[in-house]
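Colleagues,

For the teaching module next term, I've prepared a clean inverse folding example: a structure given as C-alpha cells, and then the sequence designed for it. I'd like students to try predicting residues themselves before seeing the answer, so please don't circulate the second half yet.
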C-alpha cells in the first residue's frame, strides 16, 4: 500500500507543496510537485531496517528545497512505521541528518 505525506513547505524555501510517497515496488520514496515526479530516494530493506542508498532531484527542481522536504517527509513516514531503523549511505541524507538532530533516533549507531 502506498503511503503519502503532504506537508506545505516554507515559503522562504519554495513555493510548491511536496507530496512524498513510498513506492515499494521500486524501493524508493518519491517526491511529487504538482503531481509530477520531482525526485526520489532509493532504499533497500534490511533485517529490521531500511538503508537509504541514493537521493536525486530533477534538475528542474534543484535549489527549491525539494530534496530537504523529501528527506523530512521520508523520515516522518519511516518514524510513523515505528519498526525500522535507518542506515544511511546517501551523502545528501547524511548531511541533512547532521543539521536535524531531532531525527537521530531513527538511525542505527
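(Answer key — instructors only)
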Amino acid at each position: 500500500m502506498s503511503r503519502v505525506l503532504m506537508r506545505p513547505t516554507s515559503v522562504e524555501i519554495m513555493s510548491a507543496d511536496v507530496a512524498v510517497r513510498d513506492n515499494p515496488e521500486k524501493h524508493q520514496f518519491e517526491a511529487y510537485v504538482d503531481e509530477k515526479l520531482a525526485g526520489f530516494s532509493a532504499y533497500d530493506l534490511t533485517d529490521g531496517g531500511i538503508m537509504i542508498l541514493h537521493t536525486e532531484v530533477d534538475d528542474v527542481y534543484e535549489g527549491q528545497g525539494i530534496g530537504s522536504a523529501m528527506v523530512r517527509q521520508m523520515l516522518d513516514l519511516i518514524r510513523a512505521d515505528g519498526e525500522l531503523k535507518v542506515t544511511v549511505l546517501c551523502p545528501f541524507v547524511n548531511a541533512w541528518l547532521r543539521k536535524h538532530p531531532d531525527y537521530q533516533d531513527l538511525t542505527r549507531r
